[in-house]
């Protein structure tokens, strides 16, 4: 190849490391871009009515996670955080996604007696509708090459709880558009949830995330840099 595009600085560092050994002069970092066209909410919404159903008349806080159910996402850590935090019965975690660990993860959450705290959804055909319906987006990954779903959450003005690792640090800025925590640390995630119970703080981080998206990750920038 004449040139190689890396979708993050983290991926570039991996490519020039001894594991791969590519000449860094051949590599350009071009971040994903996101435009509202790509996450436009559909008029007919068939997959997020469950949130309205569970919210009912009581004031609940919904944490959403969209992820493949695979080891990389370390979802047991997120489940453990809910177990630590379940003293607040109004906290609900909605995990949307499929993968070979689904049955294992459901059994794991049931062993923690979290049947009333966690909602499982196989597939979301309206990502924007889902994200607009939740209060906090959380992902407990061990690593990410980028994490496009973070941009989608930022477009929907949602605060993010993410892990302080790999490319996530390039997208989520601690105490600006979300809270970064160490990997495999359910206690820190639980404390982040506690902080984000504050609606004013959620709104502040959500608006900051939207501004970061608009300035750093516009679709036209990705097109131009690729060209």
Structure description:
- This protein has 227 residues and is an alpha/beta fold.
- It has 10 helices and 8 strands.
- It has helices at residues 9-15, 49-55, 75-85, 102-111, 127-133, 148-155, 168-171, 186-195, 199-216, 219-226, and strands at 4-6, 27-29, 61-66, 91-96, 118-121, 136-138, 160-163, 178-181.
- The strands form 2 sheets. It has a 6-stranded parallel sheet, with helices on both faces.
- Helix 3 (75-85) crosses helix 8 (186-195) and helix 6 (148-155) crosses helix 9 (199-216).
- The longest helix has 18 residues, at 199-216.
- 37% of the residues are buried.
Please specify the SSE layout and strand pairing.
Layout: E1 4-6, H1 9-15, E2 27-29, H2 49-55, E3 61-66, H3 75-85, E4 91-96, H4 102-111, E5 118-121, H5 127-133, E6 136-138, H6 148-155, E7 160-163, H7 168-171, E8 178-181, H8 186-195, H9 199-216, H10 219-226
Parallel strand pairs: 1-2, 3-4, 3-6, 4-5, 6-7, 7-8
Helix pairs in contact: 3-8, 6-9
**What's the mean pLDDT score?**
91
- The amount of helix comes to 25-40%
The number of E-state strands comes to: 8
Q: What is the structural class?
A: alpha/beta
Rg for CA atoms: 18 Å
How many individual helices? 10
Largest β sheet strand count, sense and barrel closure = 6 strands, parallel
Taken in chain order, the helices and strands follow as: EHEHEHEHEHEHEHEHHH
User: Which shape, going by the Cα principal axes?
Assistant: globular
State the low-pLDDT regions, or none. none
How much of the residues is beta strand, in percent?
5-15%
Terminal CA distance: 16 Å
If strands are numbered along the chain, what order do they take across the biggest sheet? 5-4-3-6-7-8
């Amino acid at each position: 190849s004449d040139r190689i595009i890396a979708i993050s600085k983290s991926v570039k560092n991996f490519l020039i490391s001894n594991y791969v050994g590519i000449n860094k002069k051949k590599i350009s970092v071009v971040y994903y871009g996101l435009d509202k066209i790509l996450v436009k909410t559909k008029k007919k919404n068939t997959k997020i009515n469950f949130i309205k159903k569970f919210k009912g008349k009581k004031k609940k806080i919904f944490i959403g996670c969209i992820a493949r159910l695979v080891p990389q996402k370390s979802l047991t850590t997120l489940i453990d955080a809910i177990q630590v935090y379940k003293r607040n019965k109004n906290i609900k975690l909605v995990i949307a996604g499929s993968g070979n660990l689904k049955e294992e993860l459901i059994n794991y959450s049931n062993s923690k007696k979290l049947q009333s705290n966690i909602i499982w959804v196989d597939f979301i055909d309206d990502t924007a509708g889902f994200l607009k319906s939740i209060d906090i987006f959380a992902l407990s990954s061990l690593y990410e090459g980028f994490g496009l779903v973070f941009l989608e959450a930022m477009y929907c003005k949602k605060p993010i709880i993410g892990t302080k690792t790999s490319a996530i640090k390039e997208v989520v800025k601690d105490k600006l558009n979300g809270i970064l925590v160490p990997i495999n640390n359910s206690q820190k995630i639980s404390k982040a949830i506690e902080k984000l119970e504050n609606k004013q703080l959620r709104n502040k981080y959500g608006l900051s995330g939207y501004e970061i998206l608009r300035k750093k990750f516009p679709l036209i920038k990705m097109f131009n840099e690729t060209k």
